[in-house]
Design brief:
Radius of gyration: 27 Å
Number of helices: 8
Distance between the termini: 58 Å
Shape: rod-shaped
Strand content: under 5%
Number of domains: 2
Number of strands: 0
Structural class: mainly alpha
Order of helices and strands: HHHHHHHH
Largest sheet: none
Oligomer: single chain
Length: 159
Amino acid sequence: MPKVLYRVTLTREERAELLDISRNGHRAARVVLNALVLLAVDQGEFQENPKKPEQEVAEVLNITQRSINHIKERFVEKGMNAAIERAPRAARGVGYDGDFEAHLTALACSKAPEGHARWSLRLLADRVVKLQYANKISHETVRQILKKTSLSLGKGRNG
């Protein structure tokens, strides 16, 4: 896949806004850093200082050239706000309710399946899905729920 080179050309208003962000001091460090990157790589007609090579910009700002390319890409494809602000985080999955936790706890306290001395986290996760208490669940989530209920599979006797 060929490498795409993104060209940042800022308008007078965008430059003014980025300069304000970089001088203001009331924004997150990441936002200020991204604003400084955009100002440094600007190739528009309103650029006041001579353009510096990206390698030099990366060294001065103590970031990688790859980071600079990502910022430029977001600017060109999604606009200035997307380039300077942090992308919104993905929403966490729905937690499990008390009913589910009760079923899991009861299952963990029950006799282990034939051929096993005790329940393992993976066995519990698989059984919960098989019994259709959940569509899918990881063994780590099972561990966290059992930990929250003070139920450890490592204890000699539970229940």
